[in-house]
Amino acid sequence: MTDWPRLADRQWVQETNKRVKAQETHRSSLVGVESTDENALHSLDSTLKKTTAFMKKLKSLSAASIPSLIEELSRLNLSKFVEEMAAGITETKLKPSDVIPIVDLCVAIASRYPKFSELILTEIKKCLPLKRADKISNPAKLRIDVRLLCELILCGVVGKEGLQTLGATLSYICITDKGEHLNVGLICSLCRPVGWQIAGIVPSPEGNEGVSIEQGDLEMSEAITPEHRKVVNDLFTNYHTGLIRHLEKACAVMNVVQKKVKRHERTRGDATVEEKAELETARAEYERLKALASELSSALGVQMVELKEEPSDNEEDEMAAMEMDKALAEGHVSLWPDDESRLFYENLIDIRNIVPRSLYKESEERTIQENELKTSVDDIDVDGLEAEPAEREGDVDVGEKEENAAELDRPKTPPSPAQFNEDMTSATDASMITSEEIKQLAQKFFLNLDHLVNRDTTDQCALDFVSNLNTKSYRKKLIKVLYGVPSSRLDLLPFYARLVASLSPVMPDLTTELSTMLIKQFREFVQRCGQERVEEKIKCVMFIGELVKFGVIPRAEALSCLRQLVYDFRGHSVDMVCAMIETAGFYLYRNSDSHPKMKIILDVVQKKKERIKDVRHVMLIDNAFFACIPPADSAAARRAQAEPPLMIFIRHLIVDINEHNVNTNIKCIRRLAWDDETVASWCLKYLTSPWLLPYSNLLHLASAVAGLQGLTYYDWISTYVIDACQEMIRISLEVPGLFNQKAIASACYLGELYNYSVCDTPVIYKVLYQIISFPETDPLAWQEFYRVRMVCELLNTIADFFQTGRARRKMDYFLTYFHRFYWMKREQWKVNVVMVEMPGAEEAGDNAVIEPPRFPADVEAEYRECMRHMRKSAPLPKDLAEAENAVEQIEQQLKEKLALASGSADEEEEEEDERKVLDRTLHEIAEEDGEEYGSDSERPPAIIAEDDADEKVCVHVEKPVIQPEDEEFMRQLDRMLADQVKVVPQQTSVAAAANPSVDMTVPAAVRNRFQRQICFEDSPGGSKNAAENSKPSMKVSLMARGKGNKLVLKTVSIEESALHEAWKKEREREEVERADIKRVTLGHTARIFAEEEQEMRQQIYSHSRFN
């Protein structure tokens, strides 16, 4: 309605411009009027005869008498009759043509008597409906009053208060008339004369002689602001939209009735009188609404919508039903998927021929009225299911609401489920047999109901109940047990339905009560969306579907249930539709009478699936669709697409791994042909797919990878698995919404790998910081919290290893940034959800207080639980500002440490140079051949001082760590030297030869000097002689006895030989073996700890369950 240029009537344009100029003239004449000029009034005629005559003329106003009244007004003093003049003008019966002259008279009176404006507005308010409780008693007078009020506002007689009164009146007219649309004529009477001034409306030309006009071709009144015009325009537009919706609904109702009448005329020859009368009523309502919509569309200047009055005949549906019936008759298709199902649902036990009639004579008679379920498939209307419901409370159409309301007036209907349960718990039947044998049989029977697993046991239960327990009280108890089947035992529903179908011929009341209770429960679930668990809803629709397949509940009722669910296809309705289609969809699709309707419902479900974003719901819809219409693929094609047996075996080894078979599976995986690229690719595919395993088995898969890492030729597998996990997390961040579950599983898997020492701490920190720092490009990312969930899952997995020391400090840094990330996401959600999901004021009501939506409780609970696991006593930030301050403090501390480290860099370089000089001086210390010193007391003072200096220098040098192998080597060297000393010449004294075990102990000072030489031997600052000698050699100090039986330490250079190389290789082999034993031992220890913990949990669970 704001597009220019527009088509308009030329005469209307001229009249509108003329009228706007006249209104502006009146406004300018009233601008200077502030108070009454008393001197001027005293000079006028105020005789009672003339003033009384004037007031009589005023009460019988007409367009012809107004000019004379205006002339007399200028000669009379009517200051005492201002209130009577205002009341007389508003009470006079006026015609639409009298409004403009009346407005001229009001302008003349207001220019002479300023208080007239307030008085006439008060009188007009008395005639206008301003509250919702007001009623319109005289619509014709209301048209004149609203038109008069608009003209008075535009001419300046009434000001801002009058504009508020007009807004309240128009709001009442448009908002309170959404159902009947009785005020269309009133709105149309305003749009043509004053629609442009008050709402910017250009009416459509009445004939074909319209002219194109621009916005500047029309004069605009300054009495109403553009904002007020927009408000009035929106009111009229919304009213017009509601009328069009009402018209479309009436058209749909008429089409349905007309389709039914035509179908009956084609199939039966003629329709009933009631159906024809219903069609005439629907057509009359449609014609009335169409005329009103056409009139209002012309007045508002919008194009009238085109509606299809004549619906297409239902010939296509009839042809489809005939084709299905022919295919069933010829045997091309079957009503059941296999022979076993056909026998289960069709071959029921005939209790009448097995049990004597005396046992079921009482229960065979129907004592309650049969439930009024829909039995005709033709009565189910599946048209209009593709449209989205306008309002939540309008999910069920008017016919269904009337039907539900009419159920309250039915005579002696079965009780509701709640009332039934109360009656069962409170009532006691006098006919209850008190025999202990009967009680035992009843107890055994009801216990056996939980173990119905085949047809034979179900049929035997039916026979036992009819033979032994066929009393009123036990029949009620059986209904209660069947109705209250647990939602976790959905496998019992087919057998319970077979039991009910078997008992139906001899116990019609049981069938009637149970089916009525289920249908009522279903309707309660549909009307009260989201208040019950979805498991109960799924159980209800599956039970109804099973009873439909046995013929206990008509197929038309099942189609009606599906229609109600598909109409509002969202939330739990999706789960209920999928469960019902999987249960009875195949049966309804293959029946000739329900096939056309079921086909339409399936098509609508497929179309509405495109609007669903939940991956789980999409998967459920696909499964239900293919369960109803299986794909027509051949057995050969399925065999061609079958997986190789070796691939299935590999998937079994990895996917089915648990605490009991982890060691066996590791051995089998190790023995696979890893040199084959196909086998290796299969193994790596499943080793890097943690989402295929249950969450509790991820630690066992990580244990298997750790076990493979400890083997010599399989250590590369762990690196591949870690890279794959990181890659999946990275992909989920780059393409959000597609791999969220896989990424969360990969994060948990990576944490378990860290627990088994497969990956290092830097990998964990890299992933954590990547998750919270990767940029979000999706504009709807504020709705997703999978990053928070991913971080929480990873932290919960690795929390025990970051509680002390340096790891705890680094983790505290990350948690500070994670707190900020969490509160940033929370603030984004808070800002966006207010703009997107906040309900409007009109929907909430006038006095309703609109509360903003609450942050998702599951995300907040997971975050707080993770923080309690990581830091039990640490306080959490309460808002984003507090989290930002914590990050700033951490960064400031790190900057200060970095500044201190950079300031001491020069000092460290100087110390490093001093160390190099000291290294060179220490290398120059060498023992001379023939040097003999037994102890420090026998050495020269210079050398002792030099040793002291060396000891002082060593304070600045890192003390070498002597390995156990080096100590063993020193002991062997001492023993070898001792053996060499024992071999002396024959000239040695008898006393010396008599001592077979000479104990030679290396002095402490010599040992220290020897250790310093070995420690600095390989440093870069060696002497020139050592650098010139390029031939590799190893210096060894030998201790012997010199003159006077004194110890002599000599340095000998030994070249590398085969003995030295063999010793070196043996040492490397021992190190590798020791590392392998260490890894295997740690892996076994972790697995034993996990097994003990699992056994403890099972014992606790068993003990608690037993108690």
From TrEMBL:
GO MF term list: RNA binding
InterPro entries the UniProt entry points to: ARM-type_fold, MIF4G-like_typ-3, Nmd2/UPF2, Upf2/Nmd2_C
Pfam families, per database record: MIF4G, Upf2
Basic and acidic residues bias spans: 362-377, 389-412
Coiled coil: 272-299, 880-928
Keywords: Coiled coil, Cytoplasm
Domain MIF4G: start-end pairs: 48-260, 439-631, 647-897
GO biological process: nuclear-transcribed mRNA catabolic process, nonsense-mediated decay
SMART domains reported in the protein's UniProt record: MIF4G
Record's GO cellular component terms: cytoplasm; exon-exon junction complex
Annotated segments matching region Disordered: 362-423
Compositional bias ranges of the Acidic residues kind: 378-388
Localisation per UniProt entry: Cytoplasm
Family matches, as SUPFAM superfamilies: ARM repeat (SSF48371)
PANTHER family for this protein: NONSENSE-MEDIATED MRNA DECAY PROTEIN 2 UP-FRAMESHIFT SUPPRESSOR 2, REGULATOR OF NONSENSE TRANSCRIPTS 2
The protein's name in its UniProt record: Suppressor with Morphological effect on Genitalia
Gene source species: Trichostrongylus colubriformis (Black scour worm)
